[in-house]
């Protein structure tokens, strides 16, 4: 019987500076367009995760098969809508933290504090903002 090799699940967290310029409504609309396209692409590629945007910065957690994640991250790094893409963490995971969301979104219009899996990410972003060393920069 031929056996399918198990795909290694990877989780990658990065932080970047937005290059989207203009009034808040325009930036929000651009991000919604980006999120909408990304959600469909992530679903097709078996990628799940979450995108955060606040104060001109993005943070994103992405998880999925290593090869698909590598391809996606190469495209993300080359995307002219942001710069200073900085990897905060890249790990092999045993289970998905976002099993049901190809790409959830938390933006500046959210009035409630971030919860769940977004909390450690926000804490890490705050550390980076204080200059407490990101790991790799692309
Ligand atoms: C902050 C940010 C997050 C993104 N997240 C995703 C994502 O989760 N999935 C995705 O397919 N594209 C995402 N993109 C878009 C990719 O950078 C890229 O435009 C898209 O994958 C198409 O790449 P291609 O033209 O090389 O095929 C993101 C872009 C930015 C700026």
Automatic annotation (TrEMBL):
Gene Ontology molecular function, alphabetical: blue light photoreceptor activity; FAD binding
Signal peptide extent: none
Transmembrane segments: none
PROSITE patterns: BLUF
Classification via SUPFAM superfamilies: Acylphosphatase/BLUF domain-like (SSF54975)
Entry-linked SMART domains: BLUF
Gene3D superfamilies to which the protein is assigned, alphabetical: 3.30.70.100
Sequence ranges assigned to domain BLUF in this UniProt record: 9-104
Pfam families linked to this entry: BLUF
Top-level taxon in the UniProt lineage: Bacteria
Protein name as annotated: FAD-dependent sensor of blue light
Upper taxonomic lineage: Bacteria, Pseudomonadati, Pseudomonadota, Alphaproteobacteria, Acetobacterales
